[in-house]
Design a protein that fits this description.
Blueprint lengths: L4 H14 L9 H19 L2 H7 L1 H4 L10 H6 L4 H5 L5 E6 L6 E5 L6 H4 L12 E3 L11 E5 L18 H6 L2 E6 L2 E13 L13 H14 L2 E2 L10 E7 L6 E15 L3
Parallel strand pairs: 2-3, 4-8
Antiparallel strand pairs: 1-2, 1-5, 3-4, 5-6, 6-7, 6-9, 8-9
């Protein structure tokens, strides 16, 4: 099979992500800087919580509240994403998995290399940042939204993602939350597994019914842990990916958008 230049670049990027398991995060100073900047991000995004809450009250208690109540959605709806953009305009939102270390701003650069080696505050640091694939739509309208993060050995960034391969941990953490300008979105996890560097798991803009079925079947066939839910081809997906201990594989957690529990600000 002949590889296009675009496909080669993507393979090189996914391979570069694997270096994190060996090198990234070994410097104590880098870890300390990364932790400090993550805390700064949390302070900034929460600073104007009461003011933002008043503006968005109708999405919490009024006519625009979602059909399914979720206390986490209610909390996240007040995050001030705009305040983070005053530090870095490339912030597109926030990702949160309750009772885990995954609680970070999400970035997007023009390529997939920059945030492998820079933090959300543009500090040169091998811990990097959590970021959307450069080809993923910021409004989360793609069939599959793809998010990357390094596997840091102190469980920061996506360092705890591998634990979703364990049944107890998988069952205890059922949902992923993304906050963007578009709203607060709850994605319910349905599968976790390991996969190679170039599989359909990393496809985003899948248009045909056949390919969408292939995407879903691949996840279900490779799942180490699964809820048993079989997604439909008209649903939207979120894929979190990081390197595994074996650098020829990626740890992947996949989830389906729960529309009834999510809030869209344009409605």
């Amino acid at each position: 099979m002949k590889l296009t230049s675009k496909k080669i670049l993507n393979i090189l990027f996914i391979a570069a992500l694997a270096v994190g398991v060996i090198f990234y995060g070994k410097s104590l100073n880098e870890k300390e800087v990364g932790a400090r900047e993550s805390e700064e991000a949390k302070e900034i995004v929460l600073a104007n919580r009461e003011e933002i809450s008043a503006e968005k009250e109708e999405f919490i208690t009024g006519s625009k509240k979602p059909p399914v109540y979720d206390s986490v959605v209610e909390e996240l709806i007040t995050l001030d994403i705009d305040a983070l953009r005053e530090v870095n305009p490339e912030v597109i939102g926030w990702i949160y998995i309750p009772n885990t270390n995954i609680d970070y701003p999400v970035l997007q650069h023009e390529d997939n290399q920059y945030y492998l080696k820079y933090t959300w505050e543009h500090t040169r640091n091998n811990i990097g940042a959590v970021f959307l694939d450069c080809e993923t739509s910021v409004d989360l309208s793609d069939f599959n939204t793809l998010v990357y993060g390094h596997r840091i050995n102190n469980k920061t960034m996506f360092g705890s993602l591998y634990k979703f391969l364990e049944k107890e941990y998988f069952d205890a953490h059922p949902s992923i939350y993304l906050v963007t300008d578009e709203g607060v979105f709850r994605y319910d996890i349905f599968a976790s597994y390991q996969t190679g560097l170039e599989t359909i798991s990393f496809a985003m803009k899948i248009e045909t019914e056949k390919k969408r079925k292939e995407f879903i079947n691949f996840a279900l066939d490779y799942a180490v842990q699964s809820t048993g839910y079989v997604p439909k081809t008209d649903e939207q997906f979120l894929t979190l990916a990081t390197c595994s201990f074996n650098d020829t594989y990626r740890d992947v957690v996949q989830a389906v958008l729960n529309e009834e529990a999510s809030v869209r600000f344009d409605q």
